[in-house]
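Team,

Forwarding the record for the chain on the shared tracking sheet. I've put the sequence and predicted structure together so nobody has to dig through attachments.
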Amino acid sequence: LYVFHACKQRKKNVKLLLCGDGKEREAIERLICELKLEEDVKLLGIVDHVNQVLQAMDVMVMPSLFEGLPFSLLEAQTAGLKCIVSDAVSKESDVLKWNQFLSLNLEDDLWAETILMTDLDYDRLTGYRVMKQSGFDLEESGAEAEKMICLKLQNNGRY
């Protein structure tokens, strides 16, 4: 929220979409009010149609303290989004080689500058194509998961 606040100071027409829910929601809502961002931050809660939300975005920002291989980041890349993530996120997650990795120790203004300077003049379909060629295809992955579940059921819970 502080990074978004810094973005807002530089560019008035930005919006922030936050997906998910949890025990920190009340604290997040208070901070949104403190920073006077009520009109510009949308708390979407649990989202069933992530693909539609991703299509509404220009950039995905993930300032995570720790992430292995975040599925949400793979989804964002499949939607053709450029992503700005903390350097705590696994470098293996950068399938498109578009991600920018920033230190969590950087000032909010530097994060904001990176977000706002992201080049958005590119073909988002390229992201989808590259992700699919890299083996991140929902239909193929779903079929593989279904085979594994059936195999496990046939073998009394063992693969």
